Amino acid sequence: MTATRIVSLLASATELVAALGARDRLVGRSHECDYPPDVASLPALTAPKLDISRPSGDIDRQVKDLLARALSVYQVDAAALRALHPDLIVTQTQCEVCAVTPADLEAALAAWIAPRPTIVSLAPNALVDIFADIERLAAALGTPARGAALIGTMRARMQSIATQTAALPHRPLVAAIEWIAPLMAAGNWMPELIAMAGGDNLFGSAGRHSPWMDFAALAAADPEIILVLPCGFDIARSRVEMPALAAQPGWSALRAVGEGRVFLLDGSQYFNRPGPRLVESLEILAEILHPARFQFGHEESGWARFVAADMRQTAS
Q: What pLDDT shows up at residue 307?
């Protein structure tokens, strides 16, 4: 039976539901679901148990404290969820820090008396998993043809860029930073996107969780390009957090810093969301890595150059 009342507890899943033609069936969302913009009118059913306004280091300590006490990072409004009577709920198993997990959802459904909704748990570790998730979600929505079409369109656009970068004479060394304090490199699908955009990724492995790193490793690698795309942060928030990274001894001696090739990317809207806009994420990377070859028009909206003046503005 085709689902008619859908709750999405994952921002990328909300985008996928809309892209698969089922936006009108969405009845609830997570607190992070904000695209397409009109989903803001739907009730938010989740909330973080930590203060996300705090600096990166404080957020990390809060998360680790919650996990050490076997507590979830998020809470689900079980009463509000039950009142919506969903017949399909979409969540994820990829990261217990990034969004509500099946365990969180099971706790919210523990007292459920009515017929339990179908639960689709996405597991996007690499690009191949993301396409498989789209196919699986499309089947659950009763729109398999739209799923196949979306996958085909995404693959074609991404392959077009990869084909062009494969012929370029130089592949810059790239360090992608997914968290600032403590330092974390970008993993999962990011190494694949960097390779398709014509770069050589220095840290993090495709299909694996994002690894912790230290500044000494970054300095030793001395990348040509540094990408800063903290999970859940937009460009403005990343700019506020940058002093913690730029204060590291040896920062100014890095090749990327000296050549003005440190970039702030909108991780929240693009790179941290394994959904339809990963195509735009790839375009952003191509613009940054090979500006003479690619101009998609994402500068300032999807990425911005980090300059010394940013530090002065942040300090003031």
A: 87
Give the whole-angstrom CA distance, residue 108 versus residue 76. 6
Give the pLDDT confidence of 32-82 residue by residue, as tens digits.
999 999 999 999 999 887 788 898 888 878 877 876 765 577 788 888 998
Residue with structure tokens 């937009």? 234
pLDDT, one tens digit per residue, over 49-60 is: 778 889 888 887
Identify whether 190 is part of a domain: yes
Assess if residue 306 is contained within a domain: yes
Determine if the peptide bond prior to 182 is cis (ω within 30°): yes
d(CA 21, CA 162): 28
226: nearest Cα among 264, 267, 262, 181? 262
Cα–Cα distance between 190 and 104 in angstroms, integer? Answer: 27
Q: Do residues 180 and 65 both lie within one domain? A: no
Entry pTM = 0.92
| Largest separation between any pair of C-alpha atoms in the chain | 62
264 in helix, strand or coil? Answer: strand
Q: How does pLDDT run across 188-218, given as a tens digit for each residue?
A: 999 999 999 999 999 999 999 999 999 999 9
Q: Are strands 74-76 and 46-48 parallel, antiparallel or unpaired?
A: antiparallel
Domain membership flag for residue 1: no
From the list 33, 62, 37, 63, the residue with the least C-alpha distance to 45 is 33
